[in-house]
Design brief:
With 100 residues, the chain is mostly helical. It is built from 3 helices and no strands. It starts with 9 loop residues before the first helix and ends with a helix. The relative contact order is 0.04.
């Protein structure tokens, strides 16, 4: 068996260092600092709170209707038809896909 010649690991180490520096640069570009708040926005929470407080009387007089919710678990004709239509349709697609 012939002895191995010594190989320099300088080139792979240099390439790894360059790759790490490029990755660090790209990560530094992605994460930017948050914008500074301006003096004009200091009263924005107060305005939003006032708008919410002004809308409370409108919400108190909202209509309280019972809506028919089809997906509550009861068996309705629409549920039964949908079940059979989708089941038979998917079965037909699977069967004809097998034939192709």
């Amino acid at each position: 068996m012939s002895p191995r010649s010594p190989r320099s690991s300088l080139l792979p180490a240099a390439l790894l260092a360059v790759a790490c520096m490029l990755a660090a640069h790209w990560v530094a570009v992605v994460f930017v600092p948050a914008p500074e708040t301006s003096a004009l926005l200091r009263g924005a929470p107060t305005v939003a709170g006032a708008a919410a407080a002004a809308g409370v009387p409108l919400a108190a007089h909202a209509a309280d209707e019972l809506l028919a919710y089809n997906m509550a678990g009861e068996w309705t004709p629409t549920f039964i038809q949908g079940y059979f239509i989708l089941t038979l349709g998917y079965t037909a697609v699977a069967f004809f896909s097998y034939l192709v």
